[in-house]
Backbone:
């Protein structure tokens, strides 16, 4: 049975609830009976089936490659994929947003290609336009950290 889950954002409330459910499974029958009882009406942040379904949807979304046509085109950095080179850090942008004046002059950029929006990748020296056969074919969201990886 697949439940419809409205949003897949990692909320502290849902993460805490997942930890409670994990403890219920660990501590045995009494905790399981208490935690895995259906409530009417359902509370999507509390009922075990809703929370577990939400977690599965969030995990699937976070680890699935999507067609590049569905990627955000608002400047969000995402992980891109292209068969010939693999993973790329990309975003939908225009060259004018990251080139310096001297780079624009040296590169002979005109308004047509300077302000044209397209996929750009980070190559640790400068950005590169990815158009035509160089455009990525798939994308995935970058992980979102709610705390520093060194907080543990």
Residues:
């Amino acid at each position: 049975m697949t439940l419809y889950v409205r949003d897949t954002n990692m909320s502290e409330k849902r993460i805490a609830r997942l930890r409670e459910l994990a403890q219920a499974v660990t501590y045995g029958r009494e905790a399981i009976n208490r935690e895995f009882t259906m409530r009417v009406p359902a509370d999507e942040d509390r009922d075990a089936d809703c929370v577990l379904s939400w977690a599965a949807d969030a995990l699937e979304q976070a680890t699935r490659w999507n067609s590049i046509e569905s990627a955000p085109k608002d400047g969000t950095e995402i992980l891109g994929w292209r068969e010939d080179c693999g993973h790329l850090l990309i975003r939908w942008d225009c060259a004018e947003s990251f080139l310096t004046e001297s780079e624009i002059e040296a590169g002979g950029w005109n308004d047509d290609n300077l302000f044209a929006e397209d996929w750009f990748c980070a190559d640790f020296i400068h950005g590169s336009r990815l158009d035509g056969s160089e455009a990525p074919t798939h994308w995935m969201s970058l992980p979102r950290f709610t705390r520093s990886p060194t907080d543990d």
Observations:
- Residues 12-27 form the longest helix (16 residues).
- The helical segments are 12-27, 29-35, 48-62, 101-107, 111-114.
- The chain has two domains: 12-62, 66-141.
- Residues 80 and 86 are 8 Å apart (CA to CA).
